[in-house]
Each structure stands twice: as C-alpha cells, then as structure tokens.
C-alpha cells in the first residue's frame, strides 16, 4: 500500500487540534526593513535620511559583532564548566583578543575565520536562478572530477597555506592545535574541517611568545539554547471518535511539492509527481483513509514550486510545446515569468484543497519562490496565492526561517538552504579502497550529512553560521536574528536527499527517548518531488515517522 495504515472512521471523528501562535516576527523584522519596504514615494519624501537608513548602507561587520555579543556569555560558561570538570587550573577570561597575555592559559571568545586561498575555489557554473539549491551547492554531474573538485577546494589544508583564526572587534589570533606542535594527547576538538567561518566559540589555550600563534587546549561552543520557561502542552488535543481521544496530535512536515513540474517541459516526471500529490491530498482529507484526522497542522518547508527557468535538457521539449504552451514567447524561448505564474496557480489550488478540509497550513518560501533572495526571506505576497489567503484563520504565510509555538511545543525550521550551504564547509574524507586517484594525490571527499550539520547548528545556537560569508543575508546592525535564544522542541530543515531524524538531549548529546522537556527532535524532511515522502511528528512524545507515497505498483 502507498500509505502505512488503513482504517475506518465514523462520522463522529474530530480532527486533532493544537493552539497555534506564529513566532517568526523577529525574522520578518529583518527580512523587510522599513527603508526597503516603504516604497519609492516614501523614500523620495524622506530624502537623505531614508537613503542613510537603507539596510545596505550598513557594514556586515555589525552582524558578526551582534552575534558575538549574544553568544559570548554562554561560550564562556561552557568553557569554564568544562575546565572545572577536567580538573584544569582556572584560565583567565580575556575581554578582547588584543589584550591576551603570552604564555598564560587564557579563554578567548571570538568568531572562527578560515582563511583560504580564494583561487582554489571552483568557478560558479550555475546561477541562483537556473538550479535548485541542492544542485547549485552539490552539482550531481556524472564526471567524478566535477563532483569532487568543489568540495575538495573547500577542504581546509594547512599544507596549502590555509590559516585558522579567531577574531573579534579588536583583532585576530592564529589558532593551532596542540597536535600541530607534537602533543597528540591534547588535540581536543580543533578540526578546521568541522567548523565553518562565522561560528562563535570560546578557545582555551596559550599564545606562543615567539610566533604569536595560540596553541589550542580545547574549544567550546554556546551549546543548545535554554528552554523557554512556562512551556506547557496542556492545550494539545488528539483526534477523537465519539468524543473519545484516539491519537495524539501530529505535525506533518513536507517539502519539495514541486507544483508546476507537470508542465510540458517536464511531462514525464510531472505526471508521476502530480499523482503522488493527489495521494497525499487524499491521505489528509479523506476520513476513510489512514489516520489523517490526527494531522493538526501542515508545514510546507520550501520547494513549493519548480525552478523559474528551463535547463538545457528542456529546450527540445519547449520547442515541441511552443504551439500550445503559454509559457513560450514569440521568439521560441522559454518565458520563466509564465512558468512561475503557472506553478503558483497550481500551488494555490493545491493548498486550497487542504485548507478546505479544515487543516491549517503554514507555507515557508524557498529557493524558487518569488521573494527576496537574502535571508531572512519575506513571506509570499498575498496576491500570489489569492485562493489560499481567503482562509484567514487556517493559512499562514511564513518567513524563511520559520518559527511557531504549538501549545508550548516550539517549532523552528527552514527550507534547508542554510544547512545545505554549511555542509559544503564540513567536508570529510571518504573511506574505501578507491580513496585515492590514479596519481595518488587527491583524496575523495564528501559533505557532512544533513543531520550532522543540523545538529551542529543547534550546538552552536545559530541557524545560519555561514551567513553573510557564503549564505546571503541582510546586514542587520542591532542583532543577529539567526541566533537561537530559546530551545525548540522540533527543529527541521526541508528539501533533503533522504529522511533523517535524531533526538538531542539537554547538553546537545544524542539520546534515545525524550525523558523531559529539554529534548529537541531534529528532522531532515526529504524532498517530496524526489522521494514521495512526508514526515509526521507527534507533538506530545516528539516521536516521528515517515510516510511514503508511491504510484509504482510492485
């Protein structure tokens, strides 16, 4: 069967319910600065003051300063507690890097900077508009060299002149592990290929008086954020039959719906994907199928529509469809604007069918959606989804990233671009017999797994550490909206290659069961267009399951 449970329900079935409160206002504030959203007329009337207040008149250094300020205290606390547990003599906390004393055991707090030769970075062969996020970041070419070179070029190698620094407003200091100076027993946690530029950390070590290099004893991050006080799950109500509660409320996570892919440019794949979307719709809305009444909310985590422009492989199909397709111009070239319009119309109709069944839906914009490219991304404009926005009490247009509160269950997530970008800077050597190429020089590498990278963002309390260095973000000056100030119960990313899940304890360790409210469920939501899978998260127990929809008979 194409869904994992089949059952019968009576007409007295009541859908599960979870009180909902959107919490993405902090992202919206920095996704749509007043200077950029007030319109040309307002800007002209305010004159020079509006020009000076434009967000891009600010320097990106303010982002790193705000990030360091927010995470500094927690990094120091973790470093001091770790030293105490290890029985190490107390180390002095240095307020500014420039004030560090040579030869003294010190705790420095700053931003990790990986200084690498920019010439080693591969040329960008695709743009932000002609490929999906995964394709752009990890090209799936048949040639091994083209697949390996982008990752290999981002791999830190001190033999090629790469240098690791710790930086704050006053200056920077070069970092070297104790293993680099011959002490293998103290190589604690300093692996440049396990951190990325932009990560805030507390580094314990001594600065060499001769070289000025800091020999690292240990490195400590902010750790998972604290649990918000007053959280409760009392408002959760499961699905009931004849007033008897049967199942716990379930949050359904889906990404990569790919609406619009059944256009003439991708007819073969689109037909199959369209059928799987109908299966998902039946699972949610038909009371005689499965346990869809337990779904209290659906979150679409990016990938709602397909790419705006055609690829080289689509040109032949585009020419054949030119006579009957509205998405072609007189010149015979593909009209990306018409394709976006077609995709949005189909997405709007699909979401409306879910809303008509009384199921709340939150929509997170993603890579191909018509919104700003820089993070945080603004919600889609209401005119783009005219039918869906009519369900005022059920439909929410979210920012990217997404944050909400379901009766005390804090949910945090994104379309997955932040983690996909981070994975590039966490490469690892592949094991196996075919590890070295014919010349015996280059080692096969692969990016960190999605779940490991997601776990790291929780442990460093920052959703997008590679922004603005690699991930495009707004240059906010007052604060860094991607810093986690309170702990989520559910933390997800969308558009992944496969389903992965992990339960994380209070101190960031992996655990088997959620014994208390300090646990966080990490979820990598697979792309529906690629896998036909959605993820179900139990809001009471944080247990999760994956449901697969497949139109191919065995």
Spell out the blueprint of helices and strands:
Blueprint: E1 13-14, E2 20-22, H1 25-31, H2 34-37, H3 39-46, H4 48-52, H5 61-85, E3 92-93, E4 106-115, H6 133-137, H7 144-153, E5 163-167, E6 172-177, E7 200-207, E8 214-220, E9 239-241, E10 244-247, E11 250-254, H8 267-285, E12 295-301, H9 315-320, H10 336-356, E13 361-364, E14 395-397, E15 402-406, E16 409-414, H11 417-424, E17 428-429, E18 445-446, H12 450-459, E19 490-496, E20 500-504, E21 510-511, E22 520-526, H13 528-531, E23 533-538, E24 544-548
Parallel strand pairs: 3-4, 6-8, 11-12, 12-13, 13-14, 16-19, 19-22
Antiparallel strand pairs: 1-9, 2-15, 4-5, 4-7, 5-6, 7-8, 9-10, 11-23, 15-16, 17-18, 20-21, 20-22, 23-24
Helix pairs in contact: 11-12
Explained architecture:
Residues about 1-10, about 35-50, about 140-145, about 180-185, about 265-270, about 325-335 and about 435-440 have low confidence and may be disordered. The protein has 13 helices and 24 strands. It is an alpha/beta fold and about 550 residues long. A hairpin with a 6-residue loop joins strand 7 (about 200-205) and strand 8 (about 215-220). Helix 11 crosses helix 12 (about 450-460). The chain is globular and about 75 Å long.
